[in-house]
Specification:
The protein is mainly beta. It has nine helices and 41 strands.
Length: 811
């Protein structure tokens, strides 16, 4: 294992805890900045446009304004006042078509580029209409950004509203997995390009680095947010710590003056009942948004058996966002959120007969504060703060088998971050940093049921962590060439002390005649070990529960990410984005799943390599049709030995910790397809058809040879397949599930889901409406096995056929 050593000229080697080394790294950043003019671009919805509409004499025109783009998918309207002034707040980065219309005047349009949160003043001049002129906005909206090297994939409010109904906690995950490079394992755990634990959520610009899957924390739901944007390469330097994939969630906008409310209700299969209420109010300088949500289901985690036993869950929570202009140049935003989920752990029929039961709960409360100050016409100061508490518990009854387990863990996090953005004609420079303090606590008790009240393991620990970073980034353009350059310094202190300097680069060139953008990126990555169960995972080898002695803390991970690709419109309706990427990890982060509990413990492999190709075709809207098709091909290999984990099977843990061997990563799904076509023959009616396919994840069988040469076809070393079948069956796994596992190739069978949706706006009057939508997931009721029992995974099944009805009210 390599823990905390320099791995290149861009990385600072950890020495003592003195401040002299930090100063040296900061000085290195300054030198690199002067030499390379570094930078990047945020994906947060923070742009502001102050629009003035005038007639030929310069007098204001109370025009109606529409701001629209297909990349990102965003549309907003505003009505100018008597002086022709209008304001668009919370606009995501991108290129937009701004159209002004007013009776007696010819419609006027202007292309507007939003690069940062620095406010822009836009002037539109209208002329008296001489003929009946009109503009079709959708025909001229840009399909992609020719001068932005790094572009995320996203879904706006309309796409979130029309998404298929999902069970409790999975609506955001379902949106993300329709995008190339993302797949989901058991219990809605997201994996961007084959990585585990390395997903970062960003809520209104505030990053969250903990595991957000439904078994670890209360889930985010689409009803809470205005837009979802994901980024997997060309990552700006302002983002750090969890960088395999970034998911930016922007809370609901108060787009129009006055009161506006929405209520969504869903009833569906597996006893799923979901409800959400949201209210927005805007007047003058103030905006207020309030949301409530809750639900229940009989299928929360992905069960190990077809019977779906003991799998109930309930959830509830609320959020509040208030924003106000503190003068002409300052704005203050407060956001608060609280949620709690209680659920049972699904089990096998044999455990049901024994009276086995395990319950879990997770709760979270968070408060964010954001202050913005316009320093000049081209510069903006932004300061954010956050306090957050998260608690996760598990408890068992005395009939639990094979082990009795209790857990109570959590953390309190305090964070402050700030930045200054300077916007010029050809450069957008951003300088900033953050400081985070976390107080972790873990309690874990385990015993054989017949030995209670004695515990084989009784672990309690508390530790505090400190994380700090500084960065500088720049986005610039020279002719048809554009680049994002940046560098970031991170320091991490918990069980280990480590620090690193990470450069970032994304560049593109646009060929106008071919309407072709060619791009490439390189990201140097530093990722501290995940917080979840870290204290126990790092201490486990010294607790006497396996054959390995001597604890070694889970180390930080380092990686090199590279990508090349192109983007191009096809006609005026379709765009294509194709890319190839390489990822190389040192101390690759993964996890060890603990039986069927949904708990997992962080581990690192010595190294890992992932390579893949992604293609996405998208038609945002063309003659009542919108569609997308995504394809991903990926190959991932990792190498032991391993550090961390809670391996209680002795010999296997000893082998993994001491022996060097190579095998596919647990997320090595070679081929993944997602596609959807939506038809809207009338503005009040639509229908959609979708398909999702995965070629199947690897199975970590007990025999040493099961994974031999999997990268070359996986047909060697399988002489004991029948024994493997018997070992895994053991009276717990049904034949139907075993038939969905290819023991010869050490992989689960391919999974496939065909999905249908029909919707109608059954009532509409002005801005008020009622919409009814019927959804059918996995229409063929195919048995899809997500994971099969192995050293790193427990058996988990995807949902069968699932019908749901959604009612959406806007008033």
């Amino acid at each position: 294992m390599n823990n905390g050593h320099c791995r290149g000229i861009f990385e600072c080697k950890p020495v003592s805890d003195s401040g002299s080394h930090l100063f040296g790294c900061l000085l290195a950043i300054a030198v690199l900045v002067i030499a390379t003019a570094p930078g990047g671009q945020s994906q947060v919805m923070e742009g502001r446009l102050d629009v003035r509409v005038v007639d030929p004499s310069g007098q204001g025109v109370p025009a109606v304004l529409e701001l629209a783009s297909s990349s990102p998918q965003f549309t907003a309207t505003a009505a100018a006042d008597a002086e022709g002034r209008a304001l668009f707040r919370r606009v995501p980065p991108g290129t937009y078509l701004l159209v002004a219309s007013h009776p007696g005047f010819a419609a006027a349009e202007r292309t507007v580029e939003v690069r940062s949160a620095v406010p822009q003043s836009i002037r539109i001049a209208m002329v008296i209409a001489t003929v009946d002129a009109s503009i079709t906005v959708g025909s001229t909206m840009p399909l992609f950004e020719p001068f932005r090297p790094s572009q995320g994939t996203g879904a706006g409010r309309e796409a979130l509203d029309r998404a298929l109904g999902a069970t409790l906690g999975r609506s955001i995950v379902d949106i993300v997995t329709a995008m190339p490079g993302w797949l989901v394992e058991a219990n809605a755990v997201l994996h961007p390009r084959g990585s585990e634990y390395d997903t970062q959520y960003v809520i209104d610009g505030m990053p969250l680095y903990d595991n957000r899957s439904i078994g670890f924390a209360p889930a985010f739901e689409t009803s809470e947010f205005e837009a979802v944007t994901v980024l997997v390469a060309g990552i700006p330097a302002e983002y750090g710590r969890r960088l395999a994939g970034v998911i930016a969630l922007d809370t609901r906008r108060s787009a129009a003056l006055g009161h506006h409310s929405s209520m969504d209700v869903l009833a569906g299969g597996y006893g799923t009942r979901l409800g959400a209420f949201s209210h927005q109010y805007a007047k003058g300088r103030n905006e207020l948004s309030v949301g409530l949500l809750g639900g229940s289901t009989d299928r929360y985690l992905d069960p190990p058996s077809i019977e779906n036993l003991n799998n109930k869950a309930t959830s509830g929570g609320g959020n509040l966002r208030f924003a106000t202009d503190a003068g002409d140049r300052s704005r203050l935003t407060v956001y608060a959120r609280a949620n709690r989920t209680g659920f049972r752990v699904p089990h096998h029929p044999a455990q049901e007969e024994a009276g086995h039961r395990q319950d879990r709960s997770s709760s979270e409360s968070a408060g964010q504060l954001h202050f913005q100050r316009t320093l000049s016409r081209r510069s903006l100061l932004s300061v954010r703060g956050m306090v957050r508490d998260l608690t996760s518990e598990l408890w068992s009854n005395e009939l639990s088998t094979p082990v009795y387990v209790l857990q109570d863990r959590g953390f309190r996090e305090r964070a402050v971050m700030g930045d200054i953005t300077i916007d010029s004609e050809s450069h957008t420079i951003k300088i900033g940093g953050d400081l985070r303090f976390s107080a972790l606590r873990e309690a874990f008790q385990m015993a054989e049921p017949d030995e209670l009240p004695e515990f084989d393991l009784d672990f309690h620990s508390r530790r505090g962590s400190t994380e700090a970073s500084v960065y500088i980034q720049d986005q610039f353009r020279i002719g048809n060439f554009a680049a994002n350059l940046g560098v970031r310094f991170d320091e991490y202190r918990l069980l280990i002390t480590d620090r690193a300097l990470s450069p970032r680069l994304a560049a593109s060139y646009y060929v106008p005649r071919a309407e072709l953008q060619i791009y490439a990126s390189y990201d140097r990555i530093f990722q501290p070990p995940p917080h979840e169960n870290l204290l126990l995972s790092s201490a486990a080898p010294g607790l006497g529960i396996d054959d390995v002695e001597g604890a070694l803390a889970v180390p930080a991970s380092r990686a090199h990410f590279a990508e090349v690709g192109f983007r191009k419109p096809i006609g005026n309706a379709v765009r294509i984005d194709a890319k190839h990427y390489w990822r190389r990890f040192e101390n690759a982060i993964d996890d060890d799943v603990f039986l069927q509990t949904g708990l997992s413990f962080p581990i690192t492999f010595e190294s890992a390599e992932v390579e893949g190709t992604e293609v996405r075709l998208e038609a945002p809207r063309w003659k009542g049709i919108s569609a997308f098709a995504s394809y991903s091909h990926m190959l991932g290999l990792t190498r032991s030995p391993v550090t961390g984990g809670l391996f209680i099977e002795g010999g296997e843990a000893e082998e993994l910790r001491d022996v060097a061997t190579e095998f596919p990563i647990s997320q090595d799904q070679r081929n993944t397809v997602a596609a959807m076509v939506r038809f809207q023959p009338h503005r009040r009616f639509w229908a959609s058809f979708g398909i999702r396919y995965g070629s199947g994840l690897p199975v970590e069988l007990d025999d040493d040879d099961d994974d031999d040469d999997e990268g070359e076809g996986g047909d060697e070393g399988d002489g004991d397949d029948d024994d493997d079948d018997d070992d895994h069956a053991d009276g717990l796994i049904s034949d139907a599930i075993l038939n969905r596992v290819n023991f010869e190739r050490s992989r689960v069978a391919p999974n496939l889901s065909l999905d249908l949706s029909f919707g109608s706006r059954i009532w509409m009057r002005g801005s008020r409406s009622a919409t009814l939508q019927f959804d059918l997931r996995n229409a063929t009721d195919r048995l899809n096995v997500i994971n099969f029992s192995g050293l790193f995974s427990a058996t988990a099944l995807a949902p069968g056929r699932q019908a749901s009805v959604q009612l959406r009210l806007r008033f």
